[in-house]
Amino acid sequence: MEARTKPILTLLEELRIYLMERFCRMSTKHITWNQDVCPAIIRKLKEQCVNMRLRSVIASEAQLFEVKLGFEAYQVDLEQGLCTCRLWEISGIPCIHVCAALHYTHQHPEPFICNWFSKDMFVQTYRGNIKPLNGSSMWPKTNYTKPLPPIAKRMPGRPKVKRRRHVTEDDGVYKRVTARGGTKICTNCWEQGHNKRSCKNPQKPPPPKVKKKMGRPFKTSE
Questions:
Q1: Domain extent at residue 28
Q2: How many domains does the chain have?
Q3: Is the pTM of this model over 0.85?
Q4: Are residues 43 and 115 in the same domain?
């Protein structure tokens, strides 16, 4: 996020350093894993199968089941790796219907997770690395003109003053600013509770203004 506002060369250099550190950090992350599947996928599998016990499973064949919840029913084929909700086919992670069928047949869901989320694939993903480079002071000199930032120009039209509101904000509620909740002071008699328009009292001079001390208050240590 900090690199977005920087020049193009500094931006690319910070991205290179970020990726180099990330590849080095991720290449050693799998050492502490005790399973053959990434821990993030195991957590996601447990989160989406919290209400698995509410589903009823009806067996049709050895690997073909119907998983029901009220009026909803889905076909699960463990042999073909398909579920009619298509979540297992799209994400590669067994959905709640597949987990219910696996629990019915006393099987673990880890072997049915796609091979792309395995520990071996994670190691192959971060096997390569980015070589370190020398600083800009050691870069070869060229005769080309150095790139400069673009000249700031004033865009056409009147500049916007209002804050850009989010789509969830109701513009009709905050359009007008009222004096509701404040204390009214009359500028004719300088009493509270009414204004000059409805004042029937005689005119009085304004009260003297209290002079405020300049600077911060002096603190004395006890």
A1: 2-32
A2: 2
A3: no
A4: yes
Task: Give the neighbor-by-neighbor strand order of the sheet with 64-69.
Answer: 56-59, 64-69, 72-77, 82-83
The pLDDT tens digits for 92-145 are 999 999 999 999 999 988 889 999 999 999 999 888 888 898 888 888 888 988
| Residue 90 shares a structural domain with residue 58 | yes
19 and 77 both lie in a single domain: no
Structure tokens at 19: 């990726």
Specify if 99 maps to a domain: yes
Q: Is the CB of residue 185 less than 8 Å from the CB of residue 192? A: yes
CA distance 100 to 51: 9
Residue 67: exposed, middle, or buried by beta-carbon count in 10 A (0-12, 13-18, 19+)?
buried
Give the Cα separation of 36 and 38 in Å (integer): 7
